[in-house]
Amino acid sequence: MAEIKLLALDLDGTLLNGEKQISPRTRAALDRVRQQGVLVVPVTGRPSQGIPRAVLDLPGLRYAVSSNGATIRDLATGQVLLEKLLPAATCLEVLDRCAQVPMLREVFRAGVGYLSQGDYETLRARYAGTSMLQYHLDTRQVLPGTVAEFLQADPRPVEELFFLTGSPQEKAALRDLLTGKRLSERRLQRLAEVGLGGGRTFRAVLFRPGLPGTPLPVTPFYEEETEEAWLAQGAAYLRQVLDRLGDPGYLTVAGETILWLAEDPPGRPAALPQRLEAVTAALPQSAYFPALQVGVGAAFRDLRTCRASADQARQALAHPQRRGGPVTWYDDLVDRRLFQRGGTREELAAMAERLLGPLLQPEYQALLDTLICYLDHNGNAKATAQAMFLHPNTLHYRLRKIQSLLHRDLGQSEDFFQVMLGRKLYDFITKN
């Protein structure tokens, strides 16, 4: 075996423990390595000014690789031995392409991070109460404007262009939910703090940007960009769309899909379909969604059951029942829900609400009665009008109103069947 001459060590989680300190055991091991003549070199994504004093004070430490390899520095003299910097023009191009994506932006030059006042406050809030807060405060400088304006005014190369989006804690909690892991009360409380839970009703909504088996048209900034990175960018764009709609629902990448935990308020069955219609209308305008499929799972209140809703949304993606749009509701997969596994009274009631929507509200009782009569007469408008003593024009007005509220075309066999099923379910749950 060749003689080992150099030991390169990452900092956070490797050389440093959870308290950002070097443990006595690690320090003793490094002493033995140094005594054997091996050179110890810290390698980190941190800027050079962010390397902790505990690391710099290690005996015999001479060199450090910082900013993800952008600089190699002689710690004894401060001399930069090697640097590979990003041109300001490249950074400006990336910033321009990502201008509409809601995320924190900062740029590093000579070991110092520069960011806007708003992003600085975001950073403070994100790391409040953690051991990393002081590190971020010590290595950042607030700009009077944006990062792009800073680079335009001073176009020298930089070490790093850094973006930050989403909360690791929130992502970890949601990942646990989706894998069926038991959550602590603290994790559940954290999700409640960001707008989930609290006795409200949600549905898992899965967005698949491309059709199954079709590679995503990745046009990377760098050759090594992956489909996962592409999906993350698509999720950021989707987040922007939801923000415009005033929706605080939680987003994350889940496999080959993007998961949205969307609120589905009881008593307002049209609210989520309308939001979905607005979202799906906006997404094709982005290059991140060249094709789009959407699956919607069943409603849930207990956050610990969100995995079941996500699994149902995935089933909806696998068995689409399209009505001129990309969205498939698990509630509409009647053959799977009723004939394969049966349904509890609660499930059947939820399906009836999904199929008949606002017609179940008291103010639409006349429309519901009209629909039932119309279905009982097998869609015969003349017979329905005679049975209800309505003028034909009045009946046709009501039918148009019904179709608009339900987002269905009663002239289409699939939609007619779905509405008929909703009526049968309504009869069942009201008579039993």
Quickly describe the structure.
With 432 residues, this protein is an alpha+beta fold. The protein has 4 domains: 6-83, Rossmann fold (3-Layer(aba) Sandwich); 88-164, no CATH class; 195-342, Alpha-Beta Plaits (2-Layer Sandwich); 355-431, Arc Repressor Mutant, subunit A (Orthogonal Bundle), CATH 1.10.10.2840. It has 17 helices and 14 strands.
First-residue to last-residue Cα separation: 79 Å
- Tally of discrete structural domains: 4
| CATH homologous superfamily annotation of the largest domain | Reverse transcriptase/Diguanylate cyclase domain
Strand neighbour order, sheet with most strands: 11-12-10-13-14
What characteristics describe this protein?
5-stranded mixed β-sheet; 17 helices; Rossmann fold; single chain; 4-stranded mixed β-sheet; alpha+beta; 16% strand; 4 domains; 432 residues; Alpha-Beta Plaits
